[in-house]
Write a structure and sequence with these properties.
Elements: E1 9-10, E2 41-42, H1 44-60, H2 70-84, E3 91-94, H3 97-101, E4 107-110, E5 123-125, E6 134-141, H4 145-151, H5 164-168, H6 186-195, H7 202-218, E7 228-240, E8 250-253, E9 265-276, E10 282-293
Parallel strand pairs: 5-8
Antiparallel strand pairs: 1-2, 3-4, 6-7, 7-10, 8-9, 9-10
Helix pairs in contact: 6-7
């Protein structure tokens, strides 16, 4: 693996070595390690252009606000890193609630790190404490009647047959993984990477980015990653308007029933809505899906 555009971002260690057999080969190694995302080098020129583009977009659309905020800048930067590494490094902002209260701030982490066993919720909202920002809370189930009947023990006369749930949604179940094109091997990616050692250009960049994207999609880790499974319970919280929350962030609420609290139980943001009344009042509603870690 590597960066598909070393003029923008550069990974460390062997991932920054583009090889090549001739005298013009570029062995652009940072010498820091073997590919940890903490050691990604980012071009100052690229940062400047990114900020300039965000500023221009904000100026062109006066209704848009926050394009040049730190949070949005990091979000766009993370998206570029994900794109240039073929999806190998999908990064996101995250904060452990306890660390944040103790001055720990936010961290940039691999977005799947939020779904490892042990997460209790990135943010812990409370309704009754002095200074609470919440204005309303709503907890609901989105089960249809068939799923509810299968799930509720009071509606069962005995154990559920193995085939019962699969018959509820016959179109789903054990469907084969969709084809993602010709099988890409790590050696194929390495060969494309080494062609850049003799000189970088945009065509090679797109070629290696496509190869890495295919390799990453064909080598997904099935166990131990994305271990959080969605349960059919939604939690909607409304609070005073605030930018910064993103789809995928995790949170919980102090008032939810105890069975939905604790290690491995949290709500994952799936919907965000901002409302403005034209009188200076701004409200934000966040809907989270209950996730249970395996």
């Amino acid at each position: 693996m590597c960066s598909a555009d070393p003029t923008k971002i550069l990974l460390d260690g062997d991932l920054a070595d583009y090889g090549g057999d001739d005298d013009t080969s570029n062995k652009l190694q940072t010498g820091v390690g073997v590919g940890h995302h903490r050691h990604i080098l980012i071009s100052i020129d690229f940062i400047g252009k990114l900020l300039s583009d965000l500023k221009n977009r904000e100026n062109e659309d006066k209704e848009e606000k926050g394009d040049t905020s730190v949070n949005n800048f990091i979000r766009v930067l993370n998206q570029n890193i994900k794109d240039l590494t073929g999806g190998l490094y999908p990064l996101t902002l995250w904060s452990d609630d306890a660390e944040y209260k103790n001055g720990g701030g936010f961290k940039i982490v691999h977005e799947r790190a939020e779904h490892t066993k042990g997460i209790t919720g990135g943010y812990n909202f409370t309704l009754h404490d002095l200074g609470s920002v919440l204005t309303s809370v709503n907890m609901s189930s989105n089960m249809d009647s068939d799923m509810a009947a299968a799930a509720l023990t009071s509606n069962r006369g005995g154990p559920i047959p193995d085939e019962a749930l699969s018959k509820l949604y016959p179109g789903c179940g054990n469907a084969a993984r969709a084809s993602v094109g010709a099988k890409i091997k790590a050696a194929d990616v390495q060969k494309k990477k080494e062609t850049m050692g003799a000189g970088f250009d945009a065509t090679k960049s797109e070629d290696i980015k496509s190869a890495m994207s295919a390799w990453v999609s064909q080598n997904l880790v099935e166990a131990g990653v994305d271990a959080g499974y969605r349960y059919m319970i939604d939690l909607e919280v409304s609070h005073y308007g605030c930018w910064g929350t993103q789809v995928g962030d995790t949170f919980t609420f102090s008032g939810v029933p105890s069975k939905y609290k604790g290690v491995g139980k949290y709500f994952c943001v799936g919907k965000i809505e901002h409302t403005f009344d034209g009188q200076g009042n701004w409200d934000t509603s966040v809907t989270g899906f209950l996730k249970l870690d395996a």
